[in-house]
Write a structure and sequence with these properties.
It holds the Pfam family RME-8_N. The chain is of the alpha+beta class and 255 residues long. The protein is 29% helix and 24% strand. A hairpin with a 3-residue loop joins strand 5 and strand 6. Helix 6 packs antiparallel against helix 7.
């Protein structure tokens, strides 16, 4: 994350440029603060002390017009947010989940989930304004909930996930899979539960195992290590091997 001094006409305005290890880096987040300098100083000190990250301050300020034009990062161009399919959805956030747990009155947010040639775009249904956008190629998988016929989850490379419900869930999931593969993401697939998906991962999403690790997963499915079950080895294999198959090894190497 890169904090940037953002002072077009307002000295109390503080903005952050978020750069992640993913294909949608460069997204801007705008914050207002009456103690901007203190906030940025504390952020730099805490980041260095606890996570050993040196947050750099940009020397140049950013105009409000430039911010509005580039706030979606690599998804800021008109052709990237021009949608060919739109679905009415309800979006559930951590805030909604917390409210539901405390008072049973958690209210999801209405959204239009739109698909462009290269992005998943969330729009406000009243203003039709773009809330956020992410490249289709950063989708890891889609979770089709078995208990709720309307619920689904989108999991992204950055280990981020978004939960929605829709009356057209299955049609929406099919459109997402087609759109992602059309944009070059051939790893996207649909699963029915993420229970074992994340905990079985050996590396970060968006990366593939080296040849030795891949071969070891194959061998463990044939010769299960003591104290483990074959189903666990199958789950670990499925969680770590790309959807379109092995990257280095061949099945014969498991023998």
């Amino acid at each position: 994350m890169k904090p940037v001094s953002f002072t077009p006409n307002n000295h109390d305005l503080c903005c952050f440029l978020v750069t992640k290890l993913s294909a949608w880096k460069g997204k801007w987040h705008q914050f207002f603060c009456d103690q901007k300098d203190s906030l940025l100083r504390e952020m730099r000190e805490i980041a260095m002390e606890f996570v050993a990250v040196d947050l750099q301050l940009a020397r140049d300020s950013l105009s409000l017009d430039d911010f509005m034009l580039t706030r979606l990062g690599l998804c800021s161009k008109d052709e990237q947010i021009a949608s060919y399919a739109e679905f009415n959805v309800q979006k559930f956030t951590a805030k909604c989940a917390g409210a539901a747990a405390e008072s049973q009155q958690g209210v999801p947010t209405r959204r239009l989930l739109c698909l462009s040639e290269s992005c998943v775009v969330e729009r406000d249904p009243l203003s039709y304004g773009v809330v956020c956008a992410r490249p289709l190629r950063t989708i890891v998988c889609l979770v089709r909930d078995l208990a709720d016929p309307q619920k689904f989850i989108i999991i992204y490379e950055c280990d981020d996930e978004r939960t929605f419900t829709s009356n057209e869930r299955d049609s929406l999931l099919a459109a997402l899979v087609d759109g992602a593969r059309g944009s070059g993401n051939y790893q996207v697939h649909v699963i029915s539960s993420r229970r074992h998906f994340r905990e079985m991962r050996l590396i970060l999403f968006g990366h593939t195992l080296d040849e030795d690790s891949e071969t070891l997963l194959l061998k463990h499915m044939v010769n299960v290590p003591a104290g483990l079950k074959r189903i666990d080895m199958v789950r670990r294999f499925n969680a770590n091997i790309p959807y379109n198959g092995l990257s280095h090894s061949t099945p014969s190497e498991a023998g």
